[in-house]
Design goal:
Layout (H helix, E strand, L loop, with lengths): L4 E19 L5 E21 L3 E7 L9 H13 L4 E8 L9 H16 L6 H11 L3 H5 L4 E4 L4 E4 L7 E7 L5 H6 L9 H9 L6 H4 L1 E2 L2 H7 L2 H11 L4 E4 L6 E5 L2 H11 L5 E7 L8
Parallel strand pairs: 1-8, 3-4
Antiparallel strand pairs: 1-2, 2-4, 2-5, 5-6, 7-10, 7-11, 9-10
């Protein structure tokens, strides 16, 4: 444990397509999703201490209880690795909470990776994937964040060889949505052949966003929060190739072919006062140093 401090960036994700294909006996929903990581990031700093898990938060507020994903990930790491130490974690929270962007899951993955690095790698990647899945269905994606097709409950990941360079304008309304509530209220005919449809669309030199962007969860969230449809329309009017709610929401994004187009759209969106507005591109970094 000669290295005492490690810093990491934890990226957000966007679901460019999310189709629910079934429900398992344990209550989890089977899905097919196209997920991309983007460079809207939380920043975390890890310092080993003799024992315990201390959290220091700045930026956006986060519930700090025993169910906090950073706490749970740290406990899972020390429990599995047998390392006798604790950790102090400083989190600069930039990814909106409960917005469908996976911020908590990304922080959990960053915690597993960073503690493993700090403690001379006692856990294999496969073991960390196992721990990640126990923490949440989205967490394995963030261990190796790259554009991919996710199946199962979101844990079976197929990285994409190529994904076009897009810019994403993300609007996070000032309210939160419970993922459990959205799935509980989901009523729809389940999709079949969804994986094949995504693969066919991705074979095109440049996917057509209007053909690709779809989210089965959007009908639940936008029915309860009609402002989401107004945000989508405003993004489209501002020149987006497509617009969609990500995950269980309420985060909404527009896809743009260039930074200039996305910046022009941002200037039109900000005065609408829908919520926080973020400009992001594809994530293409390692998570820490």
């Amino acid at each position: 444990m000669d290295v005492r401090t490690y810093t990491a960036k934890a990226p957000a994700k966007l679901n460019l397509r999310l189709k629910v294909t079934g429900r398992r006996p344990d209550g989890y929903h089977e899905l097919v999703s196209l997920m991309v990581p983007v460079d809207l990031c939380d920043h975390l700093e890890f310092t080993l201490i003799p024992e315990g898990v201390e959290l220091l938060w700045e930026g956006l507020p986060v519930p700090d209880d025993e169910e906090n994903l950073v706490r749970r990930a740290a406990r899972a790491f020390f429990g599995r690795s047998g390392v006798t130490a604790g950790v102090r974690v400083r989190v600069a929270k930039n990814i909106p909470v409960s917005a469908g962007m996976g911020g908590g899951s990304s922080d959990a993955a960053a915690t597993l990776l960073s503690l493993n690095r700090l403690c001379s790698a006692p856990l294999s990647l496969e073991t960390m994937k196992e721990l990640a899945l126990q923490l949440g269905a989205d967490v394995p994606f963030f261990l190796e964040p790259k554009p991919c097709i996710a199946t199962g409950i979101g844990e079976i990941l197929e990285p994409l060889d190529r994904w076009p360079l897009f810019w994403y304008l993300i609007v996070a309304p000032g309210f939160q949505v419970s993922t459990a509530w959205v799935y509980k209220n989901l009523r729809l005919g389940l999709t079949s052949n969804e994986y094949d449809r995504i693969k066919k669309e991705l074979q095109k030199k440049r996917p057509v966003m209007s053909q690709l962007l779809e989210n089965d969860l959007e009908s639940v969230t936008s029915t309860h929060f009609p402002t989401l449809d107004r945000i989508k329309k405003t993004l489209m009017d501002a020149g987006a190739e497509g617009s969609l709610m990500t995950g269980s929401g309420p985060g909404v994004f527009g896809v743009f072919g260039s930074r200039e187009q996305a910046e022009q759209a941002r200037e039109r969106i900000i005065p609408c006062d829908f919520g926080k507005v973020f400009l992001a591109e594809a994530w293409k970094h390692n998570m820490g140093h």
